[in-house]
Design goal:
The structure is a homodimer. The first copy, chain A, is of the alpha/beta class. Chain A is built from ten helices and 16 strands. Chain A has one domain: Ribokinase (UDP-N-acetylmuramoyl-L-alanine:D-glutamate ligase), CATH 3.40.1190.20. β3 of chain A pairs parallel with β9 of chain B, so a sheet runs across the interface.
Amino acid sequence: MILTVTLNTALDITYRVRALTPHASHRVTEMAERPGGKGLNVARVLAALGHEVTVTGFTGGATGRALREQLAHTPGVVDALVPVGGATRRTIAVVDETTGDTTQLNEPGPTVTPAEWAAFQEAYGELLRSASAVALCGSLPPGVPVGAYAGLVRAARAQAVPVLLDTSGEPLRRGVAARPDIVKPNAEELAELTGSHEPWQATRDARRRGANTVVASLGAEGLLAVNAEGHWRATPPHRVRGNPTGAGDSVVAGLLSGLVDQLPWPRRLARAVALSAATVLSPVAGEFDRRTYEELLDRVAVTGDATAA
Amino acid sequence: MILTVTLNTALDITYRVRALTPHASHRVTEMAERPGGKGLNVARVLAALGHEVTVTGFTGGATGRALREQLAHTPGVVDALVPVGGATRRTIAVVDETTGDTTQLNEPGPTVTPAEWAAFQEAYGELLRSASAVALCGSLPPGVPVGAYAGLVRAARAQAVPVLLDTSGEPLRRGVAARPDIVKPNAEELAELTGSHEPWQATRDARRRGANTVVASLGAEGLLAVNAEGHWRATPPHRVRGNPTGAGDSVVAGLLSGLVDQLPWPRRLARAVALSAATVLSPVAGEFDRRTYEELLDRVAVTGDATAA
């Protein structure tokens, strides 16, 4: 199975209101609620592609129970979340029907105790035994040490499980130094990590910091990838308009799917770009438009060289 | 015991953010979560005054479970809520730390089925047998007939249980016609019911529509009351600044508390005004500042005549 780790899971709530006006009272006209956090989105996309997926991370409180109930109704996703005393955070996206704009309210998440962090690491070590690949996704909840991902990367490498890291800031900086197989920063995370705003330059810089492969996601412009085997650019055939939330998570799902299917890098990148574009067409993170995905798969342009970058 | 009915219970969530900006992403710096809906606020105030209180109404889903868990930790309040298939609504109050303004997002609540409404009416009839008074509070959830409160008023009167109605719009109009012992409209509800913006005039008009006693809550200006025994005005000794949310619910609690304690009307009104002002000083609906309450109790000015109005 593929393992995805979401240390800061969330109950993602979407509200539609006629028009959001500060200081006014609003009647919510439509609402939706879904298990959230990057690793859970990645898992839902992987399961929809037919992979066996197990999710772990932390969950707690009434919001955590609601999340797990909904996860139990997600075919193909096995719940191996670790309980914590605090409550899983909610994220609220308020969609203004008049402007189409979204206003986001994010709870900070529960504070994880040292004992809970130790329990997670033990559970993670066990899960790695049957994992063909692992993705470490998203922000760290309060209480988890900033070097957490570096430790989780090392544990995966010690068991020879390919590991992908998708986070930002200091957790990314420390995690990269532990030599993950793949990191997938977006343009902003890449610039923050390397100080460079030139994408090829920054992608190569990031690789020198320790990652075996760096895949930079550049939104509508597709992906850049650099590793010891070569360097590639993968671009969608046309710009897709829609909701970009979850597009990066679908890139991660595409890369992992291509990895366990042992595809060559150009085909992995094509899968990731097609999935990402098909996710933009879906109103919800963690879901994608299958027809668009299949249609785009052969139309993603991958250019580059299978030589050392 | 005193029975309070909240057909549209809520999980009340308060978020503090640095500044609310539409279309931006916000980190919630502080959050609180409480059982909500007018009747639950009334019940918490009554319990804090030392009364035995039972709450009923509808509850369901993960949010309903969270609400009941929190209710179980509220001393003196007995949970007799009736389960529904849908989920209890959330209300979200977003407090802007920079301006102090509050922006409100209210979910509509679950749709109640005819079978659930029938189950509630049966449970309500049973609960009335041991009730010394009942308060019917707040809006109706989708699916409950607009004449619901009229039926609940009649059922209470048939069992000779004094009944107070606190709602608005068409449910208030129909409920008043069923001759409740007390209605407690605010200025806006009173004007909507009677078409008059002159408070004494409107209070008398409302009484002619069927209520035995009309207590109009006029915010910082206190209360007007009219019944067969007389008419009174009760005003706090000074204006209190704070959070007016829940002030009306504390008026209801004060009136019911005075009723079961068999206080004469002027003292019931003084209790209601003092509780209401002490609630404005508390950051949260359903709670009040006890020292302010006790200090104000003898300082509320009640003027009027114990003769027919």
